[in-house]
Amino acid sequence: MPLKTREEYIESLRGLKQKVYLFGELIENPVDHPIIRPSLNSIAMTYKLAENPEYEEIMTTKSHLTGNKINRFCNIHQSTKDLINKVKMQRLCGQKTASCFQRCVGMDAFNAVYSTSFETDLAYKTDYHERFKKYMIYVQDNDLVVDGAMTDPKGDRSLAPSKQEDLDLYLRVVERRKDGVIVRGAKAHQTGMVNSHEILVMPTVSMGPDDKDFAISFSVPTDTEGIISIYGRQSCDTRKLEKDIDIDVGNFNFGGHETLTIFNDVFVPNERIFLNGEVEFAGMLVERFAGYHRQSYGGCKVGVGDVLIGASALAAEYNGVSKASHIKDKIIEMIHLNETLYSCGIACSSEGEKTKSGNYQIDLLLANVCKQNITRFPYEISRLAEDIAGGIMVTMPSEKDFRDPNIGPYIEKYLKGVGKVKTENRMRILRLIENMTLGSAAVGYRTESMHGAGSPQAQRIMIGRQSNLKEKKKLAMNIARIEE
Ligand SMILES: Cc1cc2nc3c(=O)[nH]c(=O)nc-3n(C[C@H](O)[C@H](O)[C@H](O)COP(=O)(O)OP(=O)(O)OC[C@H]3O[C@@H](n4cnc5c(N)ncnc54)[C@H](O)[C@@H]3O)c2cc1C
Fold it and tell me: Angle 104-124/128-142 helices, nearest 10 degrees?
């Protein structure tokens, strides 16, 4: 039964015994927790859309391992068409949730580990790739959500893992046994961890010979003994705890989340280890995962951008300014920026190539250009949205005041825009824009755009490395008739 329904996914999480802390307390029931639930709903949307025949081609595909129909989030890309459909799927999910739907990180990790394990085996005669294929069949057959865990806390950024004062600042092997390894350390910023069945760990940087214990990739269930997660705070998160809250959260149904996930001497059995000490392949894994994830943002952020552009156009209409030429021009600028990001996502997919293992990888240069633009354009789109929304977006009274029989009528009267639009609807759109530019969804739309899949400088290094400047100099010399 490779495809789970939305409801089956939610029920499957109830069976997990993850240790999750929030506001200093161990959460008994993360599934129904008011702060966590919207993020779960976003992942649940990836199941719901896969059930819909209208989205069958985008949301599902055939497993190359079993021949079964699977959710595309569990796919090992078999063609450039697959890479393109991935981006389209992410745009769709962004449009339907207006937030981070969390399931991409695992998908990007699958594809990076798939090809890297193959090439590690070629060099070392190990059997990581066969293990990983078996693991992928398990993931696909059970339609699982897998947290992609790359980022270590990293301590002093100027020092290699093995040179840190506290060696646990990079996740590492602390004991090697016949049947597996014991790992200790942490992974920071873990998107969707609490809503995931499994966690797939990868190294976070290129490594040298002294870093053998840190060059480890493996997967374990998220409720494995020794794993604890501390839930990350987001802007305006406690609004979700307010009684009868609706308008003020901006996006009632959906959200995203990150955790600091700690591995307190966790046992990993051999069959779940996909890299173990082969330091020169750590860099390949990082580069490939980052490439896929930089492509991802050319889909998901674009879908969220679609919602923000729509909200801005509505805010303009509700204010009676939609026909003003500068407003029309600002909306066009937002669309132009958003579609430029999409073009980058599609371009790096179209130019993808087959790896030695047989799966398809994006064009790395174009994927890095995609992400570099992502570190900028959502900020500009947000700036234009705030311009169009007007200051009331951040000074508006609370929903409680709006519902109050004495105070409410003042808000009804003085927050009115154009005559035929209900004040409440104007408030709803302004809160949605607030949510996406300054509230909890801004984690995904803004700061994740900046740092997720690597901070801007990481892409510039890759752009420098991939762009073949020598060839460009040759072209110029040729035209200028220079002979050396
Ligand atoms: C919302 C969000 C979701 C995320 N989701 C995930 C996830 O699901 N899984 C996952 O594994 N990771 C995830 N990440 C982590 C993401 O990959 C990192 O944030 C990113 O790699 C940057 O690392 P950092 O946050 O530690 O920043 P830092 O490394 O502290 O970077 C801060 C600044 O310092 C600079 N810098 C860092 N090191 C050096 C150096 N050695 N020399 C010079 N300059 C340096 C950077 O360029 C940057 O300008 C997520 C991040 C965010 C914000």
Answer: 160
Residues contacting 325, CB < 8 A, separation 6+: none
To the query of whether residue 191 is one of the catalytic residues in this protein, the response is: yes
- Would you call 125 helix, strand, or coil by DSSP? coil
Task: Report the Cα 389 to chain-centroid distance in Å.
Answer: 27
Can you tell me whether residue 3 is helix, strand or coil? coil
Q: What is the rounded CA–CA span in Å between residue 73 and residue 45?
A: 12
Q: Is the pLDDT of residue 70 over 90?
A: yes
Q: Is 360 helix (H, G, I), strand (E, B) or coil?
A: strand
Could you tell me the maximum CA-CA distance found in the chain, to the nearest angstrom? 85
Q: Is 51 a catalytic residue?
A: no
| Distance from the Cα of residue 449 to its chain's centroid | 9
What is the amino acid identity at position 284? M
pTM (whole model) above 0.85? yes
pLDDT tens profile 442-464: 999 999 999 999 999 999 999 99
112-135 tens-digit pLDDT: 999 999 999 999 999 999 999 999
Q: Which of 157, 286, 443 has most ligand 1 atoms within 8 Å of CB, for mutation?
A: 157
Nearest C-alpha neighbor of 39 from the set 26, 53, 20 = 20
pLDDT above 90 covers a percentage of the chain that reads 99
For residue 185, list its beta bridge partners: 263
What percent of the chain has a predicted confidence (pLDDT) above 70? 100
Nearest to 292 by CA among 39, 77, 64: 77
pLDDT in tens, 197-213: 999 999 999 999 999 99
Q: What is the pLDDT of residue 2?
A: 79
Contacts 24+ apart (CB under 8 A), 236-244: 236/435, 236/438, 236/439, 236/440, 237/35, 237/440, 238/35, 240/34, 240/35, 240/38, 241/34, 241/35, 242/400, 244/403
Whose Cα sits closest to atom 12 in ligand 1? Answer: 151
Which of 198, 258, 287, 399 is flagged as catalytic?
A: 258
pLDDT tier at 484, thresholds 50, 70, 90: confident
Distance from residue 380's CA to the centre of ligand 1 (Å):
21
Which residues share a beta bridge with 22?
25
146-149 β-sheet, strand order: 146-149, 198-201, 216-221, 273-276
pLDDT of residue 96: 98
- Let me know if 348 is a catalytic residue: no
Burial class (CB in 10 A: 0-12, 13-18, 19+), 464: exposed
236 included as an active-site residue: no
